[in-house]
């Protein structure tokens, strides 16, 4: 009788385990790398990145320039153990690059060809004192000559101006993809594609604001 119960429990256990593991073994993972889209739609970001679509066009629906968050640049200058003011002359430099966001996800890489598509759709600068170029890396630098008092430390922060663009992609295929020649990502007239690029001064340097701060240590 005991042997029968063990066999019965094992017989019930094996199907239960198989049932629990079934969704993990045979589930349909979302292979579409275009954020927010499932496998019932073409992978338009991948196709535009790899030249698999006949044409890809970025339509801007909103754009603005704003000062971004400040971030510390370089190492902290300290005179924590000193007994007299510390004289220093240091050049600080920081770089910023264009970033791309698809439905609030920024992990998708953008190829040179897709960068050109975005650049063509982003509104051009109308100012003589500042400009922006999609896909470029821009630098800003400053030299600080000063004194740090004993038992103090100091550091520099930089906040860049960013040009923000929101829009959507119009993608055309030479033959039907999932029933259509044209696809609009993530939706026609939406702002799910976002491009953020640093603003440059007329001399090509990055526009922004520097902040110097000291504190006790």
Radius of gyration, in angstroms, nearest whole number:
27 Å
Helix content: 10-25%
Distance between the termini: 77 Å
Low-confidence spans? 1-30
Would you tell me the overall average pLDDT? 85
Q: What is the overall silhouette?
A: elongated
Q: How many strand segments?
A: 11
Q: Could you describe the largest sheet, including whether it forms a barrel?
A: 7 strands, antiparallel
Query: What's the helix-strand series?
Result: HHEEEEHEEEEEEE
Oligomerization status of the protein chains: single chain
Query: What class do helices, strands and sheet pairing give?
Result: alpha+beta
**Count the helices. How many?**
3
Layout of SSEs?
Elements: H1 2-26, H2 44-49, E1 55-67, E2 71-78, E3 86-97, E4 99-102, H3 112-121, E5 130-131, E6 137-148, E7 152-177, E8 180-185, E9 193-198, E10 200-201, E11 208-216
Antiparallel strand pairs: 1-7, 2-7, 3-6, 4-9, 5-10, 7-8, 7-9, 7-11
Written overview of the protein:
A hairpin with a 2-residue loop joins strand 7 and strand 8. By secondary structure, this protein is α+β, with helices and mostly antiparallel strands. The chain is elongated, with a radius of gyration of 27 Å. Residues 1-30 have low confidence and may be disordered. The protein contains three helices and eleven strands. Strands 1, 2, 4, 7, 8, 9 and 11 form a seven-stranded antiparallel sheet that branches. A two-stranded antiparallel ribbon has the order 3-6. Strands 5-10 form a two-stranded antiparallel sheet.
């Amino acid at each position: 009788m005991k042997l029968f119960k063990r066999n019965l429990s094992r017989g019930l256990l094996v199907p239960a385990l198989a049932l629990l593991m079934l969704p993990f073994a045979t589930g349909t993972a979302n292979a579409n790398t275009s954020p927010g889209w499932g496998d019932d739609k073409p992978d338009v970001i991948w196709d535009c990145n790899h030249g698999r679509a006949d044409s890809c066009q970025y339509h801007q629906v909103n754009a603005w320039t704003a000062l971004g968050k400040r971030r510390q640049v370089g190492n902290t200058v300290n005179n924590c153990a000193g007994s007299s003011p510390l004289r220093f002359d240091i050049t600080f430099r920081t770089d910023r690059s264009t970033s791309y966001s698809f439905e609030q996800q920024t992990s998708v890489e953008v190829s040179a060809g897709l960068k050109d598509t975005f650049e063509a759709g982003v509104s051009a600068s109308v100012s003589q004192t500042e400009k922006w170029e999609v896909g470029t890396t821009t630098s800003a630098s400053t030299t600080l000559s000063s004194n740090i008092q004993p038992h103090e430390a100091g550091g520099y922060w930089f906040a860049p101006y960013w040009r923000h663009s929101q829009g959507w992609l119009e993608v055309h295929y030479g033959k039907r993809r999932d029933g259509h020649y044209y696809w609009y990502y993530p939706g026609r007239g939406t702002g799910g594609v976002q491009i953020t690029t640093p603003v440059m001064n007329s001399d090509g340097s990055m526009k922004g604001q520097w902040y110097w701060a000291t504190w006790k240590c």
